[in-house]
Amino acid sequence: MPLTVNATLKAKDGKEEALFAVLKALIAPTRAEKGCIFYDMHKSDDEPGLFMFTEEWETRPLWDDHMNSPHLKAFSARQDELVANWTLFTGQRV
């Protein structure tokens, strides 16, 4: 059964553009990954520095592979510098 993922990230004050650039750079390599059905990034119209990803993966193990990919590990190394807070939802469509 496919896995749905929603991730919301809020930039630290003054880091909005830097976070936007880093997150945008994740799109192309992620879409090329095995098991990625879709991977879309959204930028809030109402709240500067608020971003949301909507994703669907063929299986949870393939999403786990994504979470261990070089580009996600590189992002994780910068997360404390750029992200004030984030939330993650994983589940299945009902």
UniProtKB/TrEMBL annotation:
Name of the molecule in the record: Antibiotic biosynthesis monooxygenase
Keyword annotations: Monooxygenase, Oxidoreductase
ABM domain location: 3-93
InterPro entries, per the entry: ABM_dom (IPR007138), AI-2_Isomerase_LsrG (IPR050744), Dimeric_a/b-barrel (IPR011008)
GO molecular function: monooxygenase activity
Pfam families: ABM (PF03992)
Xref: SUPFAM superfamilies: Dimeric alpha+beta barrel
Source organism of the structure: Paragemmobacter amnigenus
Lineage: Bacteria, Pseudomonadati, Pseudomonadota, Alphaproteobacteria, Rhodobacterales
